[in-house]
Amino acid sequence: MEDAMSDTVSANTTPTDLHTILDHQRAAFLRFGPPGLKQRQTDLRRLKAEILARRTDIVQALKKDFGQRSERESAIVELIPLVQSINYMIRNLRRWMKPERRHVSPYFQFGRAWVTRQPVGVVGIIAPWNYPVSLALVSLATAIAAGNRAILKPSEMTPNTSLAIAKIVQAVFSSEQVSVVTGDAELGAAFSALPFDHILFTGSTAVGKKVAEAAARNLTPVTLELGGKSPVVIEPGFSIPRAADRIAFGKLTNAGQTCIAPDYVLLHEDDQDAFAKAYQDAVQKLYPGGYAGSPDYTAILNQHHYERLSGLIHNAAEHGARVLRLGDNANDSHILAPVLILNVTPQMAVMQEEIFGPVLPILTYKDPDESIAFINARPRPLALYYFGENHTERDRLLKRTVSGNVTINGTLMHYAQDDLPFGGIGDSGIGAYHGKEGFIALTHPRGVYRQGRINATMLLRPPFTRLTDIVTNLILR
What we know:
Radius of gyration: 26 Å
Mean pLDDT: 94
Low-confidence stretches: 1-10
Distance between the termini: 57 Å
Helix content: 40-55%
């Protein structure tokens, strides 16, 4: 039985503490070896049970950190994906762990070859503030399923939620298996510089580059789940009300503070006015009043992000955009009513950075090729959304653009598919996780070959003879 350290979380973690925790976990990994199937499944079940037992504490912590966040929305966007992901890992872990037999050349008969998935060791997890529970604990569950130990750093911007996560971890794991550390950006930099066996980071592209740079000094592999400007393309003739309804859902969930939220819409110029009307109707349907009057609408996390979003809106208006505010902002809070921006140009600030809020710019095209060119002229996005029934046009768009995942005739829902990898490409990320791909990302494919008593290579040893030439020429055919 492993010895548990006294605490799994420190309110004032120092760089020295980080090194001590990592050393203890690595020593335990080497001392006890990788856990078996039953132990991993037991750990995942205990983690799930503790999450469900603390459901009320979790949603209350989220509400405190955001200022306003529906308990129901927190359950839907944080707990359901998390629990379903853990269930999926438990069900499929036996199959993932099974050694995979590989082909052996006829010249190496009667040997055998296979691949085992070996835990990498200690995984560092850096989690973001926008979905602070699910994005932290899905990553942690993946590390556990892969047989690793882990050190988790939640975001300092959601301190109440970080404390709730720490209590969950402390109730389930010894600190030699999982530890939670807390601190600001300075601690985050020190965390990234540790010689982990793998780092899984979720956050902005700018910070992701710094994490990758720090990890490179230790040759630490990284999985970077970043963001970017995820486009929506609406095919001419597609039902505008249907598209608007599903785009509004994807854009306004968590008040748009979602890495895969629709960032902007590309539609035919003849459909702009109809979409604006349909989007307003969809907002009113989802959130009567469209602002703080709806208890289901989430606040912007803090004043800094509120002012950043207000600046994007103001800049667009200054440069000739038509700004439609679909509700009144709440007084003395960070609640920002949904905003639709028309007559947008690529030079506006709102098109230069990821929005990460309830602000939706609309751009128009005359020919579908324009939308493809527009997307390809920008960094590769984390998500791509297409609304249309013309399979030829849809396949053409998908073949000629590169992105992370895709949802067709909807938004966000690719994230909820446990059997799909989740990850970006280029500026939107490196690597993928979720389900089997997460297990693969956090394990090492260890190839094993067992040589048979007799094989053709015995004829290729010195002293070389005429028979050597015959066998060599036979192999080189």
